[in-house]
Amino acid sequence: MFGRVGMAAAGLAVLVLAPGHVAAQASCLTHVTSSSCRAAGCAWTSVTGSFGYCRPSAASSGVGGCGNSVTPINHSLCSAVQPSWAQNCLVASCCSYCEGDGECGTTNSLNNCGGLEYYYKSCYNCTAPPIAVPTAPPTTSNGAGVCGTSVTPILPNQCNTVPGAPFNASSPNCRAAPCCTYCEGDGECGAHNVNNCANLDIFFKACASCPHPPAPPASNCGNLVPLTTPIQCQAAEMFFGSFAAAPNCSANPCCTYCEGDGEC
């Protein structure tokens, strides 16, 4: 993890740093005796006999360094770790959650927590993110306060038609909303950044009593394709017997010809 250990000419242990180690860790690694290492507040690891290397102690905070790695968190944990969302991953302490802005291998385009990027900062003493289980607030019988079984983004053409529309930034999020309703996602409960309703992220909150979103209502208009050749026009006229008998496009069923008067 820190590199390879070698033997200096004077018989002291020397650590050859692996690429990418940060200055906060390297400051401990400059000590080549156990006494100077411990005096600096670092930890000494023996390799063989009196030889070893100096490394940051468990008390090293990691503030100002990148740590060993940063791991994106699952979007289902975004609400659970929200109190830790205070610092970017260079400034954050080891073994904590942080917000990435391109530093330390993070990216500005991950969007795993709404429109933000959140990571777990690992160091030598915490090499993997903890398995965190979000703590749900007290629930009610209608499912408000917990996540339900799934969330499904609605189609853009449903944004102004489903119950609860029109939506805005004050609409209930997908944890707070009751089961079987529509909600605005902010990273909680698997609701991620989809921007399906302008700059909002609108989902259907499913529970055991409503495992699937309701089917969208059938459109009266469908997708209209104009006829462009005489042969197509003749086929449509034969279909109805005459153009005068053709219904307009809002009244006609799908997969047939229709006559347009500005509708749809």
Q: Key features?
A:
elongated, mainly beta, 9% helix, three-stranded antiparallel beta sheet, 264 residues, disordered N terminus
Describe the structure.
With 264 residues, the chain is mainly beta. Helix content is 9%, strand content 17%. The protein has 3 helices and 10 strands, in the order ββααββββββββα. It has helices at residues 23-29, 34-39, 230-240; strands spanning 3-7, 13-17, 43-48, 51-55, 69-72, 96-99, 118-122, 150-153, 182-184, 202-206. The strands form 4 sheets. The protein has a 3-stranded antiparallel β-sheet with strand order 5-7-6, with no helix packed on it. A hairpin with a 2-residue loop joins strand 3 and strand 4. The longest helix is centred in the last third of the chain and has 11 residues, at 230-240. It is elongated. The N and C termini lie far apart (64 Å).
Quaternary state, please? single chain
Q: Percent helix among the residues?
A: under 10%
Low-confidence sequence ranges: 1-25, 133-139
- The CA-CA distance between the termini, in Å, is 64 Å
Q: What topology, given as strand order, has the largest sheet?
A: 5-7-6
State the secondary-structure class: mainly beta
Amount of beta strand: 15-25%
Topology:
Blueprint: E1 3-7, E2 13-17, H1 23-29, H2 34-39, E3 43-48, E4 51-55, E5 69-72, E6 96-99, E7 118-122, E8 150-153, E9 182-184, E10 202-206, H3 230-240
Antiparallel strand pairs: 1-2, 3-4, 5-7, 6-7, 8-10, 9-10
